[in-house]
């Protein structure tokens, strides 16, 4: 592990090809480091595991499970939909849909939402999985639809943000955002509050819209396109902003990590960074997966760089999440890695899914870890000191 301070890394544009539309998750033009050999001091203890259809079915999708506190909802690209208990993985219901699924699940107190390959937004009952309505979209969406209970918002790959009535699927408004000629196949889900919707775009901007009419309120520039080629000008935002009370934290590729006032769009602070994913926080620190695969920790109070773990470089790591004394991430070969939250040292490792891991690990009840692999394996683990 290498510890550095006040560093901004310029990453090779060639590595972006892995994230462009139509490319395989295992294509890369930067040589990933080998799986690190470590002296493990912590182990992943499996609580339960199950198979969710064919998972992403060899497509570059981001079908993250929805953890709703008392239930986990998950979907596969080939149309298997399941609801399970977080504690034991017991199925509450299971349904085989005729749809090929591109994005989901999103949800609210009563309903679940997903987007099909045929560009349809579908609403289901959380309780029974019964289909309630479906509505057409102008083009495909890769981000999970989001809802506040009365409004459902879907964002399409061509930059359109569309609000629907959650009760019946009626289209209420549409905002047409600008997207560059070339962008990454990412999935930044919108944030939907009671009176404001926050959407992230491939042009490096975050825009706040009124929830009732989709009218712009403010915009913030996370990255500014620079250079002569379209590759050099990539500034995509690939992760849903993180809400922290009255502010959001957001990161972008070839841009910055920033904290922004949620009401006004005014920048509270920022520092240079380059990431495909949003940051996470834990124990007063901010954790970020840099675009080259380094995991970086910043002190939350002053954003001072605390440590950098570079033994996972170019392994296409997922967004790191903090759980207890550890930070956990997955990678393109399907390994889970547990890092020390204090100094970033690699302390645990598990081969989970040979098809890889693309969606971030989620922390659920009792600090356990919900993992969903590209091949459809879903499991819950706890982290325990190795005896």
From TrEMBL:
InterPro entries: BamB, PQQ_b-propeller_rpt, PQQ_rpt_dom, Quinoprotein_ADH-like_sf, WD40/YVTN_repeat-like_dom_sf. Residues 1-26 form the signal peptide. It is found in: Cell outer membrane. The keyword Membrane applies. Pfam families: PQQ_2. Residues 78-308 form the Pyrrolo-quinoline quinone repeat domain. GO terms for cellular component: cell outer membrane. Gene3D superfamilies: YVTN repeat-like/Quinoprotein amine dehydrogenase. HAMAP family: OM_assembly_BamB. Belongs to the BamB family. This is Outer membrane protein assembly factor BamB.
